[in-house]
Structure formats: C-alpha cells, structure tokens
C-alpha cells in the first residue's frame, strides 16, 4: 500500500493547552494509527526563535511539548517524531529554496503584513521597525520542513493555509526550473475540531493568555475552571448551552449522549457553580492518567531525548539522500 505522508510541526513556545490538544494533538495521534498514513510530527524549535528570545523558555517548551505527545500515547515506532534542529538538512534546504523564492511572495505573508500594519498604525517612521528576517522568511523554513519529506497532507490551523500555498508555489518553481520532483503539499484544516474557547470566551490561545494548560495540577485545574466567564443567570433559571464556554469545553471531550444530558441540565436551570464543579470532575477524570505519565516523563528527560534522537535518525535517513539529490540538481556537488 502506498501511504500518504502527513506532516505537521509544533512551534516550541509555551505549554500545550486544551485547545492545542483538541485542535492538533488528538487528531494527529489518532491519525497516526491508520495504516494508510505515514506521519511526521516535529518540534519546530527553530521557528520558535522568531517568537521568543528566552533560551530557558524555548528549551522548557520543547521538553513539555515532547512530554505531552508521548504522555498521550504517541507511538514513536509508527511515527517519525523529531526535533527540527536535529535534522540540519532542513536548514540547508531552507537556503536552497529561499534562493528560488520571490521576495514579493514573502511580502504578502499575513504575519509579516500584520507586523507592518501595526507599525503603520502606531505611526512608526519605519514600517519594518522591529521585524526580523526570521519573521519575514518564516514561510520558507516552513516550506523546507514540508518539502523535505514529500508530505502530501499538512494539518494546520486556518492561519497557516497561506503558508501552504507558498510552499506549493516554491515547489512548483523548483520543479519547473531544476526539473526536481517536489511533492506539492495541501493544507488540511479540520473545521470541526479547530477552535476551543478560553477562560474569557475568546478563542483559547496563548496570545490572549486565556488558556487551560493540559496538565496543570488538579487544584489549579479547578481554579481555572472556576474562572471561566459565564453570564449572571441564577440557579433555577434556564441557560443556553450554545453560547457557553463551559459547555463547549465539556462537549469537546464528551460523547454525544453525555453532551445531550448536559444540555438538559442547562435547560433545567442548573447553577453555574455546579456546572463548573462537574466540568472539573469530568475533565480531571480524563486527564488524570496522561497527567501522571506526563509528570513521570518530565522527571526523565533522558528518555525523551532518546525518543527524539531515534526520530531524528529516522528523519535524517530520508533527508540526507534527498538533500544530496537536490544539491546535485542545483549544481552543488563535487568534481569527481
Ligand atoms: N508555523 C506552524 C504554526 O505556527 C508550525 C510549523 C512549522 C509547521 N513548520 C511546519 C506546521 C510545517 C506544519 C508544517 O502552527
């Protein structure tokens, strides 16, 4: 059977939260069990330097993200699970394809345009004020991540769709000029699972500081759930689950039956305090076991390191010969 290659990267800034879990980690792990799919999941640690300059945080975030995926049952024998920086061939490909990427294409990248827009709005003289080459050329590195392994499908959030178009564009230019055979990748955006609300009712995101981290201790989990914003309806008054963050989080984890039963409780006027306590009990039950594994893993970084090294070895076994081939195609090769 020819397997479809699925690849995705996780930028190593921050601690994984419930939104990351439902939107990316859970579907990725489930997909990795399919026999018709070959998965590549990696820690995009070089990407993280675009967003953060605190070495300790970047390092800690890599550890936490790796531990999270392992705690949730990722099978590293089935999947190629690696750290971007352990595969130096990616950076070499990044340069080669960067030389085939129009600057004008990068000028149109959303993240860059948003940063310029901020400067203009803040009446900065220089529209490029504070913008690094890392931010500007980020889509090229992302294209290198993807094109290196011939990934066909790339599960990402809506904000990354443009980067996939750019990766296709770069691949086409390479193929046209050098007669290479880069696979043209496609973005996969799951409309159903992608967005979970955070404590304040907006999308759960590190940038809004409204997240519920996956593996916070029990007491902290309860505290965070109690902080979730609700309206001021009293116990006894019927409530609308469809606009309620508590319900949204509950139903993201629950079966359809459980969600229906919960909906009935809302309509019967359950109080917010009870609904919050129940959400805590429910989530805590689901998170208990992986949380224990996660904490054990954090105590054993050597194990995590060995897993990532194993992944890098598998990744490089593909990346090295592929890069050799690309270098030849562009005329970078020995004389004999
Ligand atoms: N830019 C992606 C994000 O912020 C992370 C990422 C880096 C990625 N390289 C990738 C995702 C390659 C998919 C494929 O979400």
From TrEMBL:
ATP binds at residues 11-13, 19-20, 157-159, 196, 203-207. Keywords: Aminoacyl-tRNA synthetase, ATP-binding, Cytoplasm, Ligase, Nucleotide-binding, Protein biosynthesis. Its EC number is 6.1.1.2. A motif ('KMSKS' region) lies at residues 203-207. One of its GO terms (molecular function) is tryptophan-tRNA ligase activity. Pfam families: tRNA-synt_1b. Gene3D superfamilies: HUPs, Tyrosyl-Transfer RNA Synthetase. L-tryptophan binds at residue 145. Signal peptide: none annotated. Homodimer. Belongs to the class-I aminoacyl-tRNA synthetase family. This is Tryptophan--tRNA ligase. It comes from Endozoicomonas euniceicola.
């Amino acid at each position: 059977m020819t397997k479809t290659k699925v690849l995705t990267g996780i930028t190593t800034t921050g601690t994984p939260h419930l939104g990351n879990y439902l939107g990316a980690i859970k579907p990725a792990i489930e997909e990795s069990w399919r026999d018709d799919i070959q998965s590549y999941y990696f820690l995009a640690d070089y990407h993280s330097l675009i967003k953060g300059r605190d070495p300790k945080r970047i390092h800690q975030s890599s550890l936490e993200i790796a531990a999270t995926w392992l705690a949730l049952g990722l099978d590293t024998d089935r999947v190629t699970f690696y750290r971007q920086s352990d595969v130096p061939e990616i950076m070499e490909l990044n340069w080669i394809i960067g030389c085939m990427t129009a600057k004008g294409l990068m000028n149109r990248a959303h993240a860059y345009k948003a940063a310029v827009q901020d400067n203009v709005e803040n009446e900065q003289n220089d529209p490029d004020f504070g913008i690094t080459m890392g931010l500007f050329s980020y889509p090229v590195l992302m294209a290198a991540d993807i094109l290196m392994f011939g990934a066909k499908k790339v599960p990402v959030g809506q904000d990354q769709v443009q980067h996939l178009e750019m990766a296709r564009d770069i691949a086409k230019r390479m193929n046209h000029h050098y007669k290479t055979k880069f696979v043209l990748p496609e973005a996969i955006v799951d409309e159903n699972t992608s967005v979970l609300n955070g404590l304040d009712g907006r999308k759960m995101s590190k940038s809004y500081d409204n997240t519920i981290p996956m593996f916070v201790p029990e007491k902290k989990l309860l505290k965070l759930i109690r902080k979730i914003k609700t309206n001021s309806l009293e116990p006894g008054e019927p409530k609308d689950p469809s606009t309620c963050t508590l319900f949204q989080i509950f139903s993201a984890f629950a079966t359809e039956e459980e969600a229906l039963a919960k909906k009935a409780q809302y309509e019967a006027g359950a109080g917010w305090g009870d609904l919050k306590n129940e959400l805590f009990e429910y989530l805590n039950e689901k998170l208990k076991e992986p949380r224990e594994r996660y904490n054990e893993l954090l105590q054993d970084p050597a194990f995590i390191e060995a897993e990532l090294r194993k992944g890098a070895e598998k990744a490089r076994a593909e990346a090295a010969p592929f890069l050799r081939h690309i270098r030849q195609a562009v005329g970078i090769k020995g004389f004999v």
